[in-house]
Amino acid sequence: QEIKTILNLLQHYTEWHFHREELCMERLRCPIADANQSAHQIFIANLVDFRKEFAASGGNRDLAMRLYRELTDWLVSHIQRIDSQVTPCMILEASDDPSSVGSFSSTQLK
To answer: Which end of the chain is least crowded, N or C, by CB within 10 Å?
Structure first.
């Protein structure tokens, strides 16, 4: 039951977080926005597959390990390859409109 709850929370949080991040990248006109959205769609599809597999099997060690690997790979590779590219967009926006400095905070990406 705890794993089911965790998977449900992860699904809801992921969708909320990704939506906010995509809006931010769009607003900042980040050139990586499309790649980011595509990566998000793949991650969500994988998460849906994990949830379906859990519902069918009731969960097992193999599923837990694959989910763990998926999450750790995602956190490292996606953040390093894509999310880190938001910063230059933020700097560019600030240089174009100095009044925007401080109007954007990192919590908007969470």
So the answer is: N
